[in-house]
Design goal:
The structure holds 2 protein chains of 2 kinds. Chain A is mainly beta. Chain A is about 5% helix and about 55% strand. Chain A has a single domain, classed as Immunoglobulin-like (Sandwich). Chain A contains 1 helix and 11 strands, in the order E-E-E-E-E-E-E-E-E-H-E-E. In chain A, the strands form 2 sheets. In chain A, strands 2, 4, 5, 6, 9, 10 and 11 form a 7-stranded mixed sheet that branches. In chain A, strands 1-3-8-7 form a 4-stranded antiparallel sheet, with no helix packed on it. The longest helix of chain A has 4 residues. Chain A starts with a strand and ends with a strand. Chain B has one domain: Immunoglobulin-like (Sandwich). Chain B contains no helices and 9 strands. In chain B, the strands form 2 sheets. In chain B, strands 1-9-8-3-4 form a 5-stranded mixed sheet, with no helix packed on it. Classes of the chains: A mainly beta, B mainly beta. At the A-B interface, strand 5, helix 1 and strand 10 of A face strand 3, strand 4 and strand 8 of B.
């Protein structure tokens, strides 16, 4: 069974379009994250949700909007896609939010979604 | 911010021990040190975590000196499948989300 799954695995779209990436975890974790890994392989956090509440909102354009319908899901919607949005987007989850748990909690990552904006 | 510095790349051969050192001079008292491994086209995977001295699991060992300003990930007898990027992260309850900066990582290439 896949612990953290993302759909789609690949996404190719035109500039200006709106797209969504879905993430689901079956680990019973309280916290979910979205990361962006660019062409230089830098992995940067974008958002974190703990129990469906937004905890981290890094400096990300407001064209990116996360939605957490329940603890097991964290979707990422992107409006007006730009060339610079091309990257691999990873979803992750952990049992507790690290800053609250008194340590660093292991994060489990999904397989990634490779977004290509043409 | 507890910034980390790692070598950009390392080369090794099968069967050798590999030690990857991470510098974190500004580590806070409550910070932990965590290492992740990332294979091409996959998400990062947790390897090991420690606070001080030595931690060992079935995959690796983590050595942390008394001043905690650096740490060394030790991979015993590497194989070709250990070729990956290894990330060192530092953080805890006082530094909060800053721990979630993965940095450039160390690209390890294991050759036959």
């Amino acid at each position: 069974d896949t612990a953290v799954s993302q759909t789609p695995k690949y996404l190719v779209t035109q500039m200006g379009n709106d797209k969504s990436i879905k993430c689901e975890q079956n680990l019973g974790h309280d916290t979910m994250y979205w990361y962006k890994q660019d062409s230089k392989k830098f992995l940067k956090i974008m958002f974190s949700y703990n129990n469906k509440e937004l905890i981290i909102n890094e400096t990300v354009p407001n064209r990116f909007s996360p939605k957490s319908p329940d603890k097991a899901h964290l979707n990422l919607h992107i409006n007006s896609l730009e060339l610079g949005d091309s990257a691999v987007y990873f979803c992750a989850s952990s049992q507790d939010f690290p800053a609250l748990a008194g340590g660093t909690d292991t994060q489990y990552f999904g397989p990634g979604t490779r977004l290509t904006v043409l | 911010l507890a910034k980390t510095t790692q070598p950009i790349s390392m080369d090794s051969y099968e069967g050798q021990e590999v030690n990857i050192t991470c510098s974190h001079n500004n580590i806070a008292t409550n910070d932990y040190i965590t290492w992740y491994q990332q294979f091409p086209s996959q998400g990062p995977r947790f390897i090991i975590q420690g606070y001080k001295t030595k931690v060992t699991n079935e995959v690796a060992s983590l050595f942390i000196p008394a001043d905690r300003k650096s740490s060394t990930l030790s991979l015993p007898r590497v194989s070709l499948s250990d070729t990956a990027v290894y990330y060192c992260l530092v953080g805890g309850p006082t530094t909060g989300f800053q721990k979630l900066v993965f940095g450039t990582g160390t690209r390890l290439l294991v050759s036959p």
